[in-house]
Amino acid sequence: MITFNELQTNFPKNLHPIGFLPILLSLILLTNYTSLSQKWTTQKGGHCYTMETPDYLVRAFDLNDVASLQYKNETKEAYVIVIEDDKEHLQSLGMKFVDPEDFLEHFLRDYKNEESGREFSKVINFTANGNEHSQVEMSWDQDDLGFFMLVTAVETKNHYYKILCWTLKQNATILKDDFKKIAKSLKD
């Protein structure tokens, strides 16, 4: 590093030292900044996954505060959200699941306790896109309306996903196959 005295000794005679001060300060700051940032580490900035949706669904932002994907069609009364959970984060909270069915059962516990009028199908386990899935159908009545929801838990290497697809009971037979295709299409 060049000291100020060495700089004055080698300083050109026709350039005034005060005019050179901003250049000198810039060099000092640059030297210090460079020495502080010698090591570089790649940091993960988010997580990417894909999921197929039919063209009648449009992107939404008002269905759920924590969902990373949300789609809806209010005319068809079709709604889809995806909530992702990082396994490492879940473990830091003291939650470790053995498989997607265990994860699904933990999630459904609140639904089962909220109202006694909810009906659940038997859990179905399957593999799609190299990921293990657990899926259950749920129906209930609320405010003189009947609802149907397909809830799917997907386990990938580092994440669990909850895919919730719902509609009115009267539309369930029309939309159920689309909901199942959506749930099977998740790729991490």
Describe this structure in words.
The chain has helices at 4-9, 17-36, 87-92, 100-114, 172-184, and strands at 58-59, 69-73, 78-86, 119-120, 124-128, 131-142, 145-155, 159-168. By secondary structure, it is α+β, with helices and mostly antiparallel strands. It is built from five helices and eight strands. Helix content is 32%, strand content 30%. The model has no long low-confidence stretch (mean pLDDT 85). Strands 1, 2, 3, 4, 5, 6, 7 and 8 form an eight-stranded antiparallel beta sheet that branches.
Give the topology.
Blueprint: H1 4-9, H2 17-36, E1 58-59, E2 69-73, E3 78-86, H3 87-92, H4 100-114, E4 119-120, E5 124-128, E6 131-142, E7 145-155, E8 159-168, H5 172-184
Antiparallel strand pairs: 1-2, 2-3, 3-8, 4-6, 5-6, 6-7, 7-8
Question: Could you give a quick summary of the protein structure above?
Answer:
This protein is an alpha+beta fold and 188 residues long. The chain has helices at 4-9, 17-36, 87-92, 100-114, 172-184, and strands at residues 58-59, 69-73, 78-86, 119-120, 124-128, 131-142, 145-155, 159-168. A hairpin with a 4-residue loop joins strand 2 (69-73) and strand 3.
